[in-house]
Amino acid sequence: MSREQARQALERARRVAVATHITPDADAISSLIGLTQILRRLGKEAEPFCDDELPPRLRAIPHAEEISRVAHGSFDLLVSLDASDPARLGRAFAEVGEAPLLNIDHHITNTGFGTVNWVDPSAVATAEMVLWLADDLGVPLDRELASILLAGILGDTMGLRTPNVTPQVLREVIRLMEAGASLPTLVDVLFNRRSFAAIRLFGQALAGVRLEDGVIWTVVTREMRQTLGLGQANDLSLSSFLISAEEARIAAVFTERDDGKVEVSMRARPGYDVARVALAFGGGGHPPAAGCLVPGPLEEVIPPILSALKAAARDGRTDPSG
Ligand code: 5GP
Ligand code: MN
Ligand code: MN
């Protein structure tokens, strides 16, 4: 636990570059903008970076337009948020000079790549850890900061529906709402907005769905996306839908990117662990939700990953505590 070290490093820093992971989700953007705002409120220079496109729904988070892709110049502190390994930052920090790196994350698979590491898998979201930091640093919540942070907590808990949501998390949500964040507005923005093209892609992917040995899976090809005019920054949450199949213990969606690489999104029912499978293929995540990015082509990457997923669906998890 380096929460105190994280607070000290941030308190000492004057000029901070903050970055989050590629293929950003709500928690990535929420924690990124949230920490940037907190540091600015303390009178520091802070710049947010994410080396990827933002999905349209995340552009609605206040200050999202201030995010740049690659940091240039010199900073006295670099902060990585919600990224379990340095490759997840893309090139965000590839062009900055030497500076200590503070790694703040909640993934159990975090490799501890920072100078200071504060990794807490008990946190439901990195945005929750940023909320704790706001308290530790004495930055009061206002409506904007509360909305930014609630977006991340909602994103990673699927709207407060995951098994790790405790009374403490709900008390934090109440605080954020009392500070002015709108739960219904954020739920609407984060979960109830898809383009017609995305719905059609969903339909095409579902048409090809398969169930084998407890693993439900499907594929989104580059051609399917391009025919429908969809870029790759369109997280469909299809894997979260697939795991609702009664007969499935594990779900996976293989999405072919424009560069030919394949993104694998995995989900597991309680008692099963996809983080271990993702880690084995160079990715990471949480036992119930994980992913990896592997070189293509599809037909070569699917068989080994599928057989690892089938093994995970057979064995369940040996450690019942996680
Ligand atoms: P999703 O399936 O929603 O894209 O991702 C689920 C979880 O897996 C998230 O916690 C995300 O951070 C993690 N994840 C997804 N893709 C990757 C990846 O390529 N590398 C790593 N390290 N984690 C990933
Ligand atoms: Mn994330
Ligand atoms: Mn997260």
Outline the secondary-structure elements.
Blueprint lengths: L2 H10 L2 E6 L5 H16 L3 E5 L27 E5 L19 E5 L10 E4 L6 H11 L6 H14 L10 H12 L4 H9 L4 H12 L2 E3 L2 E6 L1 H6 L10 H5 L7 E7 L5 E7 L6 H6 L3 E3 L2 E6 L3 H18 L7
Parallel strand pairs: 1-2, 1-3, 3-4, 4-5, 7-8
Antiparallel strand pairs: 6-7, 8-9, 9-11, 10-11
Protein name: Phosphoesterase RecJ domain-containing protein
Organism: Thermoflexus hugenholtzii JAD2
InterPro entries: DDH_dom (IPR001667), DHH_sf (IPR038763), DHHA1_dom (IPR003156), Oligoribo/pAp-PDE_c-di-AMP_PDE (IPR051319)
Structural summary, described in words:
- It is a single chain.
- The protein is an alpha/beta fold.
- The protein folds into 2 domains: 3-191, Alpha-Beta Complex (inorganic pyrophosphatase (n-terminal core)), CATH 3.90.1640.10; 196-315, Diaminopimelate Epimerase, Chain A, domain 1.
- The chain is 37% helix and 18% strand.
- The chain contains 11 helices and 11 strands.
- Strand 6 (210-212) and strand 7 form a beta hairpin.
- Helix 2 packs antiparallel against helix 4 (143-156) and helix 4 (143-156) packs across helix 6 (183-191).
- The chain is globular.
- The structure holds guanosine-5'-monophosphate (5GP) and manganese (II) ion (MN) (2 copies).
- One manganese (II) ion binds at residues 21, 25, 27-28, 82.
- Guanosine-5'-monophosphate binds at residues 25, 84-85, 88, 239, 265, 283-286, 289-293.
